[in-house]
Amino acid sequence: MAENEPGSEPLQEDARLNSLDARLRQAKSDEAVRTGEARGKGDDGYRLGNRVLAELIGGMVGGAVVGGALDYWLGTSPWLLLVLLFLGIASAFRNIIRISNQRSK
């Protein structure tokens, strides 16, 4: 008896609503790509690791190059090289600690 009552039939899907849903999904996807929010979360760890490695290598190489050049010009071999190499390493570790203390987005 309840089967014959008016209004008990399921509503048919409206093609306009389906089209609107598809356009909304596409617009959200385009906006995420435009603002940079579309990249995967798996990339964050990779980027952080590369940044830490670059800081460490850059600090050591920078200190060694500047120290070696100053030693060559001033004739104080190998003291400035060693001092600036250790300063570069200390600076790299300081930057790495600062990077690790930042909040992730």
TrEMBL record:
Transmembrane segments: 52-73, 79-97
InterPro entries on file: Atp1_alphaprobac (IPR016989), ATPase_put (IPR032820)
Region (Disordered): 25-45
Keywords: Hydrogen ion transport, Ion transport, Membrane, Transmembrane, Transmembrane helix, Transport
Biological role: A possible function for this protein is to guide the assembly of the membrane sector of the ATPase enzyme complex.
Family named by the database record: Belongs to the bacterial AtpI family.
Protein name: ATP synthase protein I
Naturally occurring in which organism (per UniProt): Sphingomonas rustica
